[in-house]
């Protein structure tokens, strides 16, 4: 087996710890991102997160402080190039120019039949779901490389690989994310940056609420779900944390699929 050396002397305690590492999780105030912030912080990482709502960020920060988690926050609309740049400058100064983990979590959706989508729907969903993650990965590259053990995880979706009735733009953006994952996994492996993506099935978050509270949609979802239930944010965050752990050299370039997938 070529490539990175596996440290055969590592212990389970060192493999299952993020002590001493740094992480940026986008969109950490709600849903899956919130669960990821908590999961990484519980493993010992110093975490920075962002969203567009300052009051919610401060509320979350307060709660995380009470739990003993090391989490800093700042406002950033990830669709804005200047705000993305400002976010990475902040992260760089907080973490001394080194970032171990980048979780590209922010996502949004507006479901319509394809014939009804307008140019602004396309632009909003591509910039939120794909463009932002692309550019945040680019901007983070020097920090991830400087850490000597970098890891990127993208939040994709099952609709990136099969047809699910959630809208064609969202699905196409997630499909692009999968391919970006494969490219970065190969291109940046030489810089000791692993790249993975997680593709969840429906998970109980504010984003999924319109699908899960509509009786007919919920029935249709469950009929395609062998376990007969949707996912919980903590199930997704556990997988993201697993992929973030620095000793997981067994997953150098994979696409992981959440366990409640059809
Ligand atoms: N829930 C599901 O069923 C499901 C299934 C498959 C994949 N996913 C993916 O998982 C990820 C998380 O989804 P979720 O369900 O947890 O979403 P969510 O409940 O809507 O939470 C999204 C988070 O991102 C923030 N955010 C949204 N737009 C932003 C922007 N432009 N700039 C900065 N922050 C922004 C939100 O805060 P503000 O709105 O206050 O900014 C919030 O903190 C997404 O990529 C989604 O596509 C979700």
UniProtKB/TrEMBL annotation:
InterPro entries, sorted: NAD(P)-bd_dom_sf, Sc_DH/Rdtase_CS, SDR_fam, TR
SUPFAM superfamilies tied to this protein: NAD(P)-binding Rossmann-fold domains (SSF51735)
Domain of life: Eukaryota
Entry keyword set: NADP, Oxidoreductase
MF GO annotations: oxidoreductase activity
Family stated for the protein in its record: Belongs to the short-chain dehydrogenases/reductases (SDR) family. SDR65C subfamily.
PANTHER family: NAD(P)-BINDING ROSSMANN-FOLD PROTEIN, TROPINONE REDUCTASE
Protein name: Tropinone reductase homolog At5g06060-like isoform X1
Source organism of this protein record: Juglans regia
Gene: LOC108998464
